[in-house]
Design a protein that fits this description.
- This protein has about 130 residues and is mainly alpha-helical.
- The chain has one domain (about 5-130).
- Helix content is about 65%, strand content about 0%.
- It has six helices and no strands.
- Helix 4 (about 60-80) packs across helix 6.
- The longest helix has 20 residues, at about 95-115.
- It is globular.
């Protein structure tokens, strides 16, 4: 089953479709390079990274959520993980908090699917991003 198009998701949120795709690429590559310590409570690494990706892609928090959800689908498609057993992330609370939680979830997904080796995670993300429309 092919994941829903980023274009359709982006247009619902009012974001430019290309900007959402750019965010998916930036965040995918960036999250693959982060270590678990970068996501610990009190660390600002993810906050600053998300801010940089949002600015570079020129998208909104809603566009970032759409991109991360699409990236999740692409990662599941590119990996050997069992899709039905993979949890669906809950987007709850204030939007900025929700997008950080979603990014943390996607990082965990990358680690589970790509293994502990950083190059394997990068390779998985690259395969997933090649599936973008």
């Amino acid at each position: 089953m092919r994941p829903r198009s980023l274009t359709a998701t982006a247009l619902v949120d009012g974001d430019d479709a290309e900007a959402v795709k750019v965010f998916a690429r930036l965040s995918g590559v960036g999250l693959a390079g982060l270590e678990r310590d970068d996501l610990l409570e009190g660390s600002l690494v993810l906050v600053f990274a998300m801010s940089a990706w949002l600015r570079s892609a020129r998208t909104s928090v809603a566009g970032a959520c759409a991109a991360l959800l699409q990236l999740r689908q692409l990662l599941l498609q590119a990996s050997t993980l069992d899709r039905p057993s993979e949890p669906v992330p809950l987007l709850a609370g204030e939007p900025r908090t929700a997008v950080l939680g979603l990014a943390t979830y996607v990082h965990g997904l990358i680690c589970r699917a790509g293994g502990p080796d950083g190059s394997s995670r990068c390779s998985l993300v690259e395969q997933a991003l090649n599936l973008l429309d």
